[in-house]
Specification:
- The chain is globular and about 40 Å long.
- By secondary structure, the chain is of the alpha+beta class.
- The model has no long low-confidence stretch (mean pLDDT about 85).
- Helix content is about 50%, strand content about 15%.
Amino acid sequence: MDSHRVERVSEALREELGELIAYELSDPRIGDAVVTEVLVSPDMRHAQVRLHLSDDESGQRETIQALDGARHFLRRQLAERLNLYRVPELHFEADVSLTGDQRMEHLLKRIRRGRPRQE
């Protein structure tokens, strides 16, 4: 598979999943989860979604479990929004590499978009 296509799909998935998790999911177990990276396998069957989560271990586990429960909803929404032949299986994991500056930049980007979270 073309590596540029995999990169484009990864970026599109990251953007759409970020929007879906931030604005469409209403599960209280999902705290302030930020999609930092999506790694798509070369055959486009699996996508490893890395998230920046809250600091405590139990909150991270609950958020991952909640997102695993919402996996089918997220895939269905991605299929509607993206024109892909195959929407990859989503696998969620915590990403501990996001620094405070990157987090602040992401929050400012969300504010600039002006999309309030639907409650």
